[in-house]
Every structure is written in structure tokens, then in C-alpha cells.
Design the sequence.
């Protein structure tokens, strides 16, 4: 079940403040809302919860001023915030495990209502790969599909270019106003006018290495399927493909000669079960009957958050559970369900303990409702 | 169950005469042996059976002289005949549906006892494809596998070359002494010395278009798996791959860019379930545990031939069955089992009727124990 989207401007600002606060990822954002009832109350509770989680310094909260400035700057830029649960929020994205609570968007939001496919691949793509991406994007666009990609050099750029006329969505790893790489500025401008730009990061934030996998989960999450055109082993495109699979979306790949290292990742995907794509017809064939995904109840994977049990903290009960949880957690991601069983906590209690740990900067979330512990700060 | 191989030189000559006689394919060869008890008696019966099948002229029988000349020429050439059921007959080939009763062989027959893989592909191969075939052959050879191919230009030749040192078998579409294409004469000579040459055709016969699919069934039949390196749509390599599948052997393919027409056939095979091969390790991985095929009871698919019922012809019974069979048969291949059910004949009776029709030149055999009718002569 999704949280109710903000109903007032003040609530919207609270949402923004909460997601922009230190150590608050999407999972903890929703867990806090569920636990505290509102973003405003969550903001009040963060310091105490972080302390209980072992934080030595209080996580930095996003101030009312900062949030207001971001909203104004975004409006001045021609963009706006869309909250999960609002009609303009991309339906496919709402269905992933931890959708961003707020998306910054510039351009034509109506594109989010159409069937869409991600086209991703190597930055150092071959001429043949670039042509393949452009033609695939053109032909899929002509068939009514929106093309989603990450505005990177090579395959991404070729895919966006091929779909400029028909509709394309670029997901940025940094802020909505940060053009990266600079060489794609012209394409960026064209997409802002003719397509849509999307980011979950604050305006002005330069993309950092750790942002790209997060961005990739939006690329795949916005799409019925991810098509990998050229991808070396251990490349970002393979991460996008893996995320697509974890999100229950189709993974497809265009094969290439094994003598070209840029094809080996795509070939391996096919070995592992991705659909082999030779042309747009193959993609359309694979997609037949896959509209249904858009109608999936969003956020269903967040089921464990829905438990309504004790918001009251009984520290006498929580304290031994916290010790046990810290003992059980380690660097290897483990499923929430497994933790519930092993430490015999109520789901609501476990939620509180996990919130505390993430706010204290000691916990990381992984796809598949899994968590792992970071070393103590 | 296999027929007993010839025990005397005379029996061997009779086998050769029978398989070299007009309208006698491997299926009818074995059916005749089963029906008549020996190749000698079968040769006597052919004219009468062909007449009953509707032949207007008697099929040309191979004379004792012709058979003796072929045997002498083959010996002079350094080759010999190997009969199905003899120890030197390739075990994998003996397991296919209609193995050649006699194989002409030059070279190292011990190669037939080793695990083997067919490497086939485009004649107009790309430089990358040629290199891939040569390296695959080298590496698979180093791993102890014999490489089987068809001595064609391009991929076939590259595969043989890569495996010259380790062991390679070339299957010829024409007679054992006919080098085709001429440009591969040097390779042909090297294989004759270092590997093995195999043919089911008489010495001196120039290969014709219709011989190539027959040859391809031996290429795949001699191999645990067929690996397609480059193959356009509707190419001979795809026929070999299909035959391999029908023979219960593994089909593997090396992918390539869909922009290269030479890759589209191989890519389609992968779409349809062939294992995607990037290097020799992939082939070896797929082959794990596949030695067992070599131990399969050979000729098991010929089960319907094993029926021991009435060799006596009751023409009063056969005549109406023949009329019904001719009515039921058409240009579309149909399973023997289905015919047995539909015309309610004893298997022995149906065998006789099918022998008659093939000898009369009116019947063709297809893989999967299927037959179709040719227009009346």
C-alpha cells in the first residue's frame, strides 16, 4: 500500500525535507512515514531514532529554507516535483520495490502513461552498436513505445536521438539541471523540449559514481523491458539489466561477436535467459501482453511496512532485540523476512530498529528487501 | 536392432551392390535386409517388388562387376568400406535414424572413437568468423575433441585447419576421391594424412546439390554437438543444425551482430534454444556428461523394422492395403506410426508396401520416420 501523497504545500515541503535529510533513503522514508504518520512528525523523530541506532552525531536534516529554495529553483527551471501516489507519477516506476518518494521532472509527463522500453549500452560503443541503438529506438518509437535511457555517451545518446520525435525520457544521475556528460548538452536541451528529463536528486548536485546504480534502477523501473545493445562484462548496463530482472521486468539483449569485448556482456545475458533481439519486431514480439505490468498494484513489495502494530516504543523490549539484530546483521545482505523469523520481533519493532540503524548511517538497503550492516561509524 | 554386418567378402559385395542400386536409400536397404534375410536375396527381389510398387521400368541394379571395381579402386586409393555394425563404424553415426549401411573411409578410423563436435558455418565467412572457427577448433582439439566438418570454403575449412594437429574428420558430399571445392585440395590432402575423410557416395561421384543435405546429416551424426559459427538465414549450416536437433544432438551457435546477415541464422538458432557459445569453454561446459550418447543403442529408431511378422506376401491382403496406402500418402511427410494406425496393416505388411514404393521411385524418406509420396513416374 502506498502512503497518501502530500495534500498541502506544507506537506509536500515536509516530504522534500525528509527525503533530502541525511541517511534517509526511500525505504526508510516510507518506513518513517508509516511509523510516524507524517513526514513532519518523522522529521521531529529522526534525531532520537538515529541516536538509538548508535549515531554519534545527529543526521543533518534538510531545513525548511533549503526545501523552499529547491522548489523555487525547480519552478524557475521549468520543472516540478511529482510525489509517489500522484497521478503524474510514472505508474511503472511506482511499482518498483523502493520508488523515489519525489521525482523532479521537466518536460512532457504524459510520456509516463505510454508503454516504454529502456535502451542502454556501452559508452564506448561501436559504430554498428550506435546504429543498432538508433534504428531500434526509431522503430520502437514508430510502434508507439517511449524510449528510456540514461543520457550517457554511446548507446544511450543514440537511443535518445532515435526517439526524439516519437518520445524519450532521460534519467539523470545528478540533479535535473546538471548536464552530464557535457558533450550531450544539445541532446539534453532537445529532450527537455521534446521529451522528459527525470531525476531523484536535488537540483545542482553533480553525479558521483555511487549515483549511477541508483539512476539505473529508475531507467529500468520506468520501463516494461530493458534492452542492452552493447555491454562489456562488469559494465553499468549489466547492472541496469540485473535491476530490470529484479523489478520483474523483461531483459533483452542484442548479440554480437564474442571477439568484440563490447558484446560479451550482452551475450552472457542471453545465455542467462535474456531474450535475443535482432530488431524492433523481436522487442515488440517479446512485449506482447506486457501492458499489464502498468496495472500492478504499486509498492506491493513494501508489504512488511504495512504492519500496523505498536508504534509505541517499548525500549525494554527493543533493547535486547536491537542487540540480537546487530549480532545477526553483517556485510552480507539478508532478507527482512529472514530477520523477522530469526530475531522473533514484531514487524513493527523490526521496522523501528532498521529505521534507527539507517538513520545512524549503519545500514544499507538492497533490492529484494534485503539489508546489510556497514561498519560502525 | 542392427542387422548383422557382412561376414564374408561376398556378403560385403552384396551389401555394396544393394546400396548402390537405383532407388535404394538407407531406410529401404535395412527394410529389404529385414524382409529378405540377406542383401543377396534382396537384390533378387528388387525387380518384383518395384513392379508391385508401380514401377514401369525395373530399377537399375548395381552389378557384381561394378561393385568389385569400386572396392578395388577404393583399396588402390588407400581407403576401405566400413559396414554398419562393424567395430570401426563410427558409434555416434550408428545411432542416427538411418545410418549409411556402408561408409568409405580414408585415414585414421580411431578418431571415430573419440568425443567429437561438428563446427560448421558460412562459406562466405567474415574474417572474424574464420578466426573464431579456427580458434574454437584449436581449443576444442586441445581439450581432446575431434572436429567434424564438411570441407567447404570459409568456416568449414577454418575448423579443419585449426584441428589438423589434434584430429579432424571431413565428410564429403561426393565420392571420397572427389576434392570439392578444388581450392581445398591441400587441406584435403592434409586431412587424408592426419585425420579422416568419410563419404557414403561411390568413388568418382561429383557432388550435386541434393547430396549436401545428405552429407550434412553425416556431419551432425558423427558429432555429439553441432556448433554453428556464422550462418545466414536459409543456409546449409542451419540444415545441419536442424538435423543435429533431430538426431538428439546438442545444437550450439556463436552469436554475431544482427547487422551482419551472416549472423542472423546463428542468432535465430539461439533464440530457438541453441546454446550460446562465446568460446571453447562454453562448448565444453555444454558437453559435460554427454559422452553417454555414444553408448546409445544404435539404430534404435528403426524399431518398426524389427517386427518379425509375415515375410510371406499375401497379395490378396496386400492389394487393398496398397490402394489405401496410396490414397493416404501425399506430398506432406507423415509418420510411419500414423500410417500403421490409419491403414490397419501389420508392420511387416506396411514395410513391404513402403519398400515397393521406394523401389518404384515413388516414395521419399524424411527424418523422424516419415515418408511422402512423389508424383507417379
Sequence:
Amino acid at each position: 500500500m502506498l502512503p497518501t501523497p502530500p495534500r498541502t504545500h506544507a506537506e509536500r515541503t515536509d516530504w522534500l525535507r525528509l527525503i533530502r535529510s541525511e541517511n534517509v533513503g526511500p525505504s526508510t522514508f516510507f518506513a518513517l512515514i508509516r511509523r510516524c504518520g507524517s513526514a513532519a512528525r518523522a522529521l521531529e523523530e529522526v534525531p532520537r531514532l538515529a541516536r538509538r541506532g548508535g549515531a554519534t552525531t545527529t543526521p543533518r536534516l534538510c531545513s525548511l529554507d533549503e526545501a523552499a529554495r529547491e522548489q523555487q529553483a525547480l519552478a524557475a527551471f521549468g520543472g516540478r516535483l511529482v510525489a509517489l501516489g500522484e497521478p503524474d507519477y510514472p505508474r511503472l516506476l511506482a511499482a518498483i520495490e523502493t520508488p523515489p518518494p519525489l521525482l523532479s521532472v521537466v518536460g512532457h509527463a504524459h510520456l509516463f502513461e505510454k508503454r516504454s522500453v529502456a535502451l542502454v549500452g556501452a559508452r564506448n560503443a561501436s559504430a554498428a552498436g550506435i546504429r543498432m541503438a538508433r534504428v531500434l529506438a526509431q522503430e520502437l518509437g514508430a510502434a508507439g513505445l517511449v524510449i528510456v535511457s540514461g543520457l550517457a555517451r554511446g548507446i544511450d545518446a543514440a537511443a535518445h536521438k532515435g526517439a526524439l520525435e516519437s518520445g524519450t525520457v532521460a534519467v539523470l544521475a545528478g540533479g535535473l539541471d546538471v548536464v552530464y556528460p557535457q558533450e550531450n548538452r544539445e541532446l539534453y536541451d532537445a529532450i527537455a523540449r521534446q521529451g522528459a528529463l527525470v531525476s531523484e536528486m536535488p537540483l545542482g548536485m553533480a553525479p558521483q559514481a555511487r549515483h549511477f546504480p541508483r539512476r539505473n534502477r529508475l531507467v529500468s523501473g520506468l520501463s516494461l523491458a530493458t534492452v542492452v545493445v552493447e555491454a562489456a562484462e562488469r559494465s553499468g548496463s549489466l547492472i541496469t539489466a540485473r535491476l530490470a530482472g529484479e523489478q520483474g521486468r523483461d531483459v533483452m539483449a542484442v548479440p554480437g561477436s564474442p571477439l568484440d569485448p563490447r558484446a560479451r556482456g550482452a551475450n552472457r545475458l542471453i545465455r542467462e535467459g535474456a531474450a535475443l533481439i535482432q530488431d524492433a519486431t523481436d522487442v515488440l514480439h517479446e512485449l506482447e501482453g506486457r501492458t499489464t505490468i502498468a496495472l500492478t498494484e504499486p509498492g506491493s513489495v513494501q508489504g512488511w511496512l504495512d504492519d500496523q502494530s505498536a508504534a509505541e516504543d517499548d525500549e525494554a523490549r527493543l533493547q535486547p532485540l536491537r542487540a540480537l539484530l546487530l549480532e545477526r546483521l553483517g556485510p552480507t545482505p539478508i532478507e527482512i523476512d529472514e530477520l523477522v523469523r530469526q530475531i522473533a520481533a514484531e514487524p513493527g519493532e523490526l521496522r523501528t530498529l532498521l529505521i534507527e540503524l539507517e538513520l545512524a548511517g549503519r545500514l544499507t538497503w538492497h533490492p529484494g528487501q534485503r539489508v546489510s550492516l556497514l561498519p560502525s561509524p
